[in-house]
Design brief:
Layout: H1 2-112, E1 124-125, E2 144-145
Antiparallel strand pairs: 1-2
Length: about 160
């Protein structure tokens, strides 16, 4: 019976060795799969970090573009308001100029419509000499008569006086 028992023990030992080898191979396969999963998990975490960083950069760029757009819009509105104010000021100045021209034209038309007979000749020189020679200085414009008529005459502040 020893012989039979040895055969059974030997067969059991061979079976155990075969099962141990299978377990060893499965353990190696499980370790290899675990290592692959660990690498895949690390790659996934790296990709997530890269995508998060890229998303942050994109959001920052969008915020900058939006701020630039709002600033450009604000500048454009300010420029438009300044141009509008300038145009309104120019229109007011033109209206004031037109009023002044109209007033001057009315004044000139009133002056032009006065009786022409009342106006005297322009800058005529009176060369009448006095009977007596005077020893004092006589101005060369002493006898100059500007705008005089038979009724009105004068020089300086007395022009056109009555």
């Amino acid at each position: 019976m020893c012989n039979g028992q040895q055969k059974v023990n030997k067969a059991a030992a061979e079976e155990q060795a075969r099962l141990d080898e299978i377990a060893k191979q499965r353990q190696l396969e499980n370790e290899r799969i675990a290592e692959q999963r660990k690498i895949a998990l690390q790659n996934q975490a790296d990709q997530y970090d890269a995508l998060l960083k890229q998303q942050t950069l994109v959001e920052a760029e969008q915020a900058k573009q939006q701020a630039d757009f709002l600033q450009a819009k604000k500048d454009q509105e300010a420029t438009h308001a300044a141009e509008l104010a300038k145009a309104q000021a120019e229109a007011a100045a033109r209206a004031q100029q037109a009023k002044m021209q109209e007033a001057a034209q009315r004044s000139l038309s009133v002056l032009g419509s006065r009786d022409v007979g009342q106006q005297g000749p322009n800058a005529k020189v009176n060369n009448k000499k006095g009977v007596f020679q005077q020893a004092r200085y006589d101005s060369p414009t002493k006898n100059l008569s500007v705008g005089s008529t038979k009724k009105t005459s004068g020089v300086g502040v007395n022009l056109g006086g009555k």
